[in-house]
Amino acid sequence: MIRETHFLARSGQTEGVQYQRPFSVTWRLAYVVAIAAAIFSTRAFWWPGSHVVSYDGATYSGPNTEVSLRAIRDWRIPFLNEFIFGTVPHLGNHAVAVLYPPRLIALIFGSSFGHGLIVVGHVLLLGLGMVALAKRLGVSPLGGAVSGAVVVLVGSTQTKTVQFEQIQPIAWLPVLLLALHVCVTERHRWRQVGALAIVAAATLLSGHPQLILEVVIVAVAFTAGLVLKYRTGLLRLVVAAMLAGAMALPQLLATVDAQRTASLDEGRSFDDLGNGMYILQIRKAAQALFGTVTGGDPAAFSGAFESIGWFGVVALMIGLFGIGSSISNPKSRWWGFSLGAVMLLGVVWSLGPRTPLFAIAYRVLPGFDLGRVSVRWLAIVGILLALFVGVGIDAAKKLQSRPMRRAVMVVIAVGVIAIGFGPITAGSRLAGVIWLITSLGVLITVTVVNPRHVRQVLGAFVVIELAVLSLSAIPNRITMASAVGASPSPAIGELMSMATDGGYVVALTPDAGPYDELVRGLRPNSNTWFGLRSLDGYDGGVQVTQAWTEMLSAFSATPALDLPLRNSLSAPVPTKQLARFGVRWMVLSNDRSPTEWVPDWRGPVASDDSYTVWENPYWLGDSVAWFATQPSSAGAANALRTGYQQVSETAFADVDLSCTAQCSPHKAEFSRLTAEHIVITVDVDKPALISAHVQALEGWTATVDGQPSEVTEVDGLYLGVVVPQGSHIIEFRYQPSWWWPSVILALGGAVISITMISRRRLTS
Predict the structure, then answer these.
(1) What is the pLDDT of residues 575-619, one digit of tens each?
(2) Angle at 529 between CA 525 and CA 535, to 5 degrees
(3) Which parts of the chain have pLDDT scores under 70?
(4) Distance of alpha carbon 241 from alpha carbon 223, whole angstroms
(5) 602 conformational bin, left if phi > 0, alpha if psi -120 to 50, beta if neither
(6) SS3 262
(7) What letter does residue 513 receive in the DSSP assignment?
(8) Ordered DSSP codes for 49-90
């Protein structure tokens, strides 16, 4: 700190920072306030006996974490997810964040409580990082304390806590901006380069790619202001970026590799992004941004779940004033303008494709078109708003001038007109009255409070408002007394025992209802909780492969390509086609008639008050020996749907096998040692194509009796290999060729970064 003070004093770059001892009482209290606010806001996650169970946690994040944990406990990298879509990339699903070290907490505490601790840790990181950033940028201890509390209490942050793959990236934003500032302003100190590289790498590895992209856009805008302000540090930034890229390289290559075979690797179309579920609805904008204390469902009040901004009236008023204050101050203008512009753009972009600014960004900004939910920009808006609230608190005395009080009155009047008589609604008269009273409270405060105390009063005002709003936060509304996935229903429990012999499961059960019931009903992906493998899946992003979506044509002439397999099934289900692709078990909810849906299936082989389980009589096994083939160009899926009898004994593959007698396919002995290692034993009396019901992703290799053999694709989807007459042991192994080279580079980047940090000074 003394060296930093001397350098900035010599260069004239003080930015108004009140340099004190590193852990002076005032700043220590600011950190304590941020910690207290973070603990309060995340109480649903750490409270004994409380389990936060969200839809994503039950049917996406939780199952993905289970896949990761099972692999890591076996001391292997989970390249693949064997439980959904007939085996698909897992490491390549960036949102899963397999290589993100904090996720290892779940190894110790399990998925449910482990997720809770991960959320608490990242909310603490967000709050403490905001205080540190505010201090670095010249905000007072009081302003920093308020910023640290605001950033963890706003509704946008609390909403992201139930999507922990999204809270992870945004929690790094203040720390990343802080590291960027230190790296640029500290001359000839390469240890800051190492620190920035590690922070940037953690950000890149942390979770959902859309949120990472948003963080990167903010960081780029901030960096542009830094470089223009100081005109130095560019080389250090480039080195830090290269080191960060090296450390994140295994994950980045896995993501790119998965995208090459994905069907849903792109964001929604420009028109689809206008769906009211994905945008900040103008009519409900005030409801989404101000929030309410009158009760009710926050998602319904805000227009959609991800539209919950709930920044509060006071925070928005002070934050907007803070933007103006930072821009008007020459010492903070560079970052006030860059971050203020991104914050306001975030609000505009959250409105979706209805604005020209969104259209420009969609076509110009790299990666912007990959975002699937525009309103997720509100999470970034909430973080930047918190910083500007701290600035506004520091400049609160300016609000007491007559011109500024008049400006506040004008803002209130415009809000009343827009909400009372314009296109924007308050949701209810009571909510509108509360907003008006709250805004008038700000006006009264700056009018009557002693100038010596106005900052403290406004700071308390904003924190109290957000604390009250947070009582209705989503996490507090979706808690359960037990962890999701802890107890299957009796029928599913029996299925778990039977399915050890193999076969995929498909469930025709409800899509809505309590989240624990969706899990017990094997809502696609939820089967993972119980170790049941499925050909079905949902919301997989890059895990929805092109081959899998083409396979859906075997069951429907007009399949729903972006929905689960079961959405392409109609009564009665195509039993033989399902068997062809490895489906052995069908779970029906008791509101579906078995005679209508599965008239030719065996069973029920298990049942309870909610579900029945049925067995497919045509299932051959997880591995099949075929003796006749047709070229894959013939279109396997459509041929299987329209003329199954003609191709029932023929595999679609680019190998030439013909058969004149005893050509019926038969089962081969299949053993899945891990998701990435399969062993098949077979005895055939003629040359055969051996297929395994595992997606034929690039990266699989095969050996027959220990000798390398070429992998071929069967039926447009699955692994296959040709064997001669006789008894054979076939092994399929999966490991991408880029894995170990990228790991070596990542370790090299980590060693260099740590070495930089550990040394006091390196020659520049």
Answers:
(1) 999 999 999 999 999 999 999 999 999 989 999 999 999 999 999
(2) 35
(3) 1-25, 188, 264-267, 634, 760-764
(4) 12
(5) beta
(6) strand
(7) S
(8) T-EE--HHIIIIIHHHHHHHHHHHHTTS---EETTSTTSEES
